[in-house]
Amino acid sequence: MKKIELLAPAGNLSKLKTAIYYGADAVYVGGENFSLRTAADNFTMDELKEGIEFAHKHGVKVYLALNCFPHNKDIEKLKNYILEIAKTDIDAVIVSDLGAFVLVSEIAPRMEIHISTQANTVNHVTAASWYKMGAKRVVLARELTFEEIKEIRDKTAVGLELEMFAHGAMCMSYSGRCLLSNYLVGRDSNSGDCAQPCRWNYSLVEQQRPGEYMPIEENSRGSFIFNSKDLCLIKRIPELISAGVASLKIEGRVKTEYYVASVVKVYREAIDAYYRDPENYHFKESWMAELEKVSHRPYWEGFCFGDDLGQNYATSNYIREYDVIGTLKSYDEATGIAEITQRNRFFRGDEIEVISPFVDGFFSFNADFMQDEKGYDINAAPHAEMTVRLMPGRRILPNSILRKKREIIRFLFPLIVCLKYR
User: Are 169 and 259 in contact (CB under 8 A)?
Assistant: First the structure.
């Protein structure tokens, strides 16, 4: 049985390395041009080459998103960009537009091409047509049901790879082809510059009552009428593998390194557990608990398995219950002291959780021992990027991330004091 690929987002070089450390089989990245995530840091050509070299040393593939919809003014620049990409060892490019597909085929005929979800492939005839034209893989539209995915697999050539999204943000428009952002703020979502107006709170204004705003309510749950939930298929690993898809994709090139590490880690553990013993595989609630610890909107199983509504009418806010307090800098086996680079403020006595690559779950300890980099005892770590010395009671592996649960009372205390003595 060929193992299903776990495909992770990499918004920059650091995130690429994090995804690889935590178990991705492949990563997808965006260059400085023609990617659908301008909010990501994205890769210069030199960074792209460095990222590809690092990934290949670890046996990981790199796919480049070339999936915007180019206008006439973009064509010559796109041709030159394809020529530059062809000089790298990229494993594949991801395209949405037929013209971009043709240009890649003509300019770099040996380059592997994947068809983006933006191309809206929802049936086996379209998938087979892309394959006949030379595409190696089709990323299926997120609007498909599980039965439709299986039918596409059954009715297409074995050589055609199918990829599907398993986790991450959803879009209220058909596979992301939205024009709200263009109309409302002049930012083209199909060129990578979406302002996400679907997450905004809307009200209704009656023509004869200017300035009088009435809330739009659906089932008394609020007025975020376009706001979608986040996709999460961690409970469906056996079904997804049985469907015959080649790759499970995690959305999130603009998400944090912590998000990438945590989500990739969970899906890696679940996939590996299934292949070790398919007959006795069982879902672990700890996997879902871990996914709840990253910033997310309420989860649902999408159109694939979802039997509830995919919209969140109450709020567009993310659920954020944990903060990253640092990343491992070094660990001294002799003294048991770990040096970390601080990311968010924490205090002596806080309960700290540690997640590490290729180690199931996490472990926790109390930060009863805290020193600065000079060895002086401290009670708090308030300064960004400061070095803090901790004694976790056990070895912390390289590339580990440390986090703590948010304490609402402590977080609000300065505000309460400010309001009291105003």
Answer: no
